[in-house]
Amino acid sequence: MDPLDIIERYYRKGTALYAILVDHSRQVADKSLAIARTVPHLSPDLAFIEKAAMLHDVGIFKTRAAAIGCDGPHPYICHGYLGREILDAEGLPQAYGLVAERHTGAGITLDNIRTAGLPLPERDMVPVTVEEKIICCADKYFSKSPKNKNKVMTRDSIIKELARINKGHARRFSQWAELLNLE
Ligand SMILES: [Fe+2]
What we know:
9 helices
């Protein structure tokens, strides 16, 4: 399976949105592989990580995010589970869809969804496998918005940003940062 074949069924090559998605996904895939190589004792599946990272944001076109050229009907926070629906419908093993569904924030708990009334299906969306944790963490180092493209994120700045959303997010990311030797 070539992730670009799937991406190109939903994004037109040559458009700004295609470039934003593919550049970001490549950055996240490379970062994910770099992280994975530091934790051989956790036996991460590198081939899976590369492909799943390329596909983690495939759902963004279904959301509204003017800054990156998305004009879909759904709130941006939905892009993870919407991506999962696409990957499941493409017939990929469920593991790909779960990476997409669980990568937003530091995962989103069922309690987060209920307490904040988030427009998401009521289920736990927190990374479980080492591959899901790696891709979720790697994603936090990069912004898709052209305005923040050159912003350099570090473990500490990510924790600070997550803490502004929710302390539980910051706590989970901190635990994974230890597990995965993040800088
Ligand atoms: Fe995302």
